[in-house]
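Progress note, sequence design subtask.
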């Protein structure tokens, strides 16, 4: 597998994932500085690890705001863009199709779309992978193990998902995991569109299932309906906005895709046991918004 390192410096823009030939197993790793950004080519799996500050990712799955020590894994046709905040620092890793089929890319191929926190061990492995970039150009054997260790650690962070594969349809365990990865991508799509109602046909098309089959499989695997999950995602976003922004309750309801303030108020109280205004009162900096 061929490794390419990049350093996207302050205020600059870069592009990852472009390969001269699809047969070349290519892995790009980039250190992305504050106020800079990059575009990932279509057909390339992407992993983003935010070390400090904040970052925004836009992709087929939607828009994601990542805080410090968070990771995001996206599918090959997501074609994401990354934008760093003023104090943000991130590492981006991309692998093309040939790299994912390469024996060295087996851990990356096992990664499923999703996001989560960077624990202490994963954060340390990121730092080690960055230090390995300082090795001479001829010493790829010093770099690849550190990168593989990082990707294997991310795969381990997703291990708690694997028991859900037993509930997925499929004759083989590999097929079950592929179905689970599709469902995980659908959940990520919901999270990336927390500003509106996501309809079942959208999610079904994303997973290449019929609407009926998607709904049935989603409920079977997660024990919940897609509609209920999507509503919880929007309510969680509303709760975050109530605590962290001065927007009014009606503005937040609209920003989270609710038809009116009344429907939002009922859903919020049903989920959290108190009204949005009562929750806002517990956030002193915005108690009078």
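Output:
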């Amino acid at each position: 597998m061929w490794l390419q390192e990049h350093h996207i410096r302050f205020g600059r823009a870069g592009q990852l994932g472009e390969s001269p030939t699809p047969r070349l197993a290519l892995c790009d790793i980039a250190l992305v500085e504050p106020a800079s950004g990059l575009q990932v080519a279509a057909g390339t799996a992407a992993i983003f690890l935010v070390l400090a500050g904040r970052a925004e990712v836009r992709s087929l799955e939607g828009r994601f705001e990542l805080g410090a020590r968070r990771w995001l894994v996206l599918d090959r046709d997501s074609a994401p863009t990354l934008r760093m905040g003023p104090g943000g620092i991130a590492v981006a890793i991309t692998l093309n199709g040939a790299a994912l089929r390469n024996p060295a890319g087996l851990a990356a191929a096992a990664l499923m779309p999703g996001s989560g926190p960077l624990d202490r061990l994963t954060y340390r492995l990121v730092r080690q992978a960055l230090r390995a970039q300082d090795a001479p150009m001829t010493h790829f054997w010093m770099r690849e193990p550190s990168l593989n260790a990082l990707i294997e650690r991310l795969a381990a962070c997703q291990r708690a998902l694997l028991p859900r594969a037993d509930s997925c349809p499929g004759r083989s365990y590999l097929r079950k995991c592929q179905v689970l990865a599709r469902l995980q991508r659908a959940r990520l799509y919901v999270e990336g569109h927390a500003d509106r109602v996501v309809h079942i046909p959208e999610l079904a098309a994303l997973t290449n299932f019929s609407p009926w089959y998607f709904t049935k499989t989603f409920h079977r695997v997660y024990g919940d309906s897609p509609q209920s999950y999507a509503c919880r995602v929007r309510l969680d976003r509303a709760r975050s906005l109530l605590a962290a922004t001065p927007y009014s309750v009606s503005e937040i309801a609209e920003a989270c895709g609710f038809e009116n303030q009344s429907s939002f108020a009922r859903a919020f109280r049903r989920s959290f046991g108190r009204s949005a205004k009562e929750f806002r009162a517990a956030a002193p900096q915005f108690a009078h918004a």
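The domain at 229-286 is CATH 1.10.10.60 (Arc Repressor Mutant, subunit A). Work on this subtask will continue into the next period as scheduled.
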